[in-house]
Amino acid sequence: MLFNSFTYIIFFIIVTILHYLAPHKFRWMLLLAASYFFYMAWRPELILLIVFSTLVNFYAARGIFLSNDTRHRKRLLIMSLIINFGLLFIFKYLVFMNNTLAYFISNYPVRDFDIILPIGISFYTFQAAAYTVDVFKRDTEPQSNFFKFSLFITFFPQLVAGPIERSRKLMPQLFERHNFNIENALLIAYNITE
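Request: output the structure for the sequence above.
Response:
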């Protein structure tokens, strides 16, 4: 589902209407379900990748926060960063690197291979990594609810186009009460049609 498609516009309108009709305490759950649906609309199996990334960062941040041992905290941070950027490298840059080596090295032994580039992998990788670094620096406390943290990572309006948000800025907005505002709705509608 592309942001500039008619399908996305219909999806966005339906989610927005349901969001404002739902009781406040269930709105974040609706957004999480919509975000997972949006992510799975292209290649459903790739949901495993974003769930894995979310699990790694959720538990790494919790471990970092609960530990008073600086070395242990650093090991957890480094582990999470290696996993985050390792996945990004594999899915985004490995084919490019392989093709570059094959171009410059005659009789290069590795055949060309295809890896599907998951949507939004750069955005959610950097957002998750920034969250774990913020917890390490004690700039923010980790989210105790895995599913609320999942919404922060998978929030569909910013998953593919950004911006990359710090948790202390975006996370409170996802769970506070917002009333429908016609001026904001018209502004969003205007921006979508541009």
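DSSP finds nine helices and no strands in the chain.
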